[in-house]
Design goal:
two-stranded antiparallel sheet; mainly alpha; about 280 residues
């Protein structure tokens, strides 16, 4: 789960804007662990012939590795807008450790279930799996709670000289947190698919696994979750290009939220994101 201190310092030499503090190391090492896991699992992903919900059995863990690696790297980078004392204070360190502990729990369970050839999410086949699915919901909340805590700290103590990055971080992390939780709650109530049989969503989009035959709530979830990356990036670009930050960040946020809502309504109508 960890790399040596010297290895982390060498990696940070490639990213001179990042300081060598506990929160940064925690986020970066977790992201590196997930990227390494993605590479390690490539052979079994390609060679295991089993299929679940019309996708290779190891596609779910691999999506998990990539998505959460991006999440932890994002937190490491955006946290450098706040003073080191705040970055290493109890709020971010506490939520950071909760996120990593939750990551370990979910990582183990997702991969064990893949090895068993059964679902990790949306699985209530046995009493044990019902309990684990509930715990995974709590784990998902704790995984992104650090993003919300970071948004508050950036709003209170962040460097406002880079107005676009500051604004994009606050809006992106906050709206991503809220909308992602709301959609996750909906999916826990009604499932991923709308109008599909229990066996799955039929033909799917490669890697993403989104149904091409039935309504699927996951495209909306994907768009809302990645507000945490797109809005800070838009703000950063606005700062570099000397563009007006407010209309760019807010405008993109409105468009992306509108797309998430449209995809959500499309799925509820039983229509696929990309029809077969």
């Amino acid at each position: 789960m960890t790399t040596s201190h010297s290895e982390t310092r060498r990696m940070m030499a490639l990213l001179p804007q990042l300081e060598d503090d506990l929160f940064t190391r925690l986020m970066l090492c977790t992201g590196l662990f997930l990227l390494a896991s993605f590479v390690v699992f490539i052979p079994v992903w390609l060679l295991d012939p089993r299929v679940l919900d019309s996708a290779a059995i190891w596609t779910k863990p691999q999506k998990f590795n990539i998505s959460l690696a991006l999440h932890f790297f994002t937190l490491a980078v955006l946290a450098h807008q706040i003073p080191r004392a705040t970055r290493t204070g109890p709020v971010l360190i506490g939520t950071g450790y909760l996120a990593v502990i939750s990551l370990i729990f979910e990582f183990v369970y997702v991969n064990v279930q893949a090895a068993r050839g059964t679902r990790s999410h949306f699985n209530s086949d046995t009493g044990f799996e019902q309990i684990m699915y509930g715990l995974m919901g709590l784990g998902a909340f704790l995984l992104i709670l650090a993003a919300f805590a970071l948004a508050i700290q950036i709003w209170r103590k962040g460097d406002r000289t880079n107005r676009g990055l500051w604004l994009g971080s606050i809006i992106g992390l906050t709206t991503g947190f809220v909308i992602t939780l709301a959609l996750a709650q909906q999916m826990s109530n009604i499932g991923r698919f709308v109008g599909a049989p229990l066996s799955g969503g039929g033909e799917v989009i490669p890697f993403f696994g989104w149904s091409r035959e039935y309504g699927d709530l996951r495209p909306s979830h994907f768009v809302s979750l990645h507000l945490m990356q797109t809005l800070p990036l838009a703000g950063y670009i606005a700062d570099r290009q000397k563009w007006p930050a407010m209309p760019i960040v807010v405008g993109l946020g409105v468009v992306q939220i509108a797309v998430a809502v449209a995809l959500y309504m499309q799925a509820l109508a039983g229509e696929p994101f990309w029809p077969a």
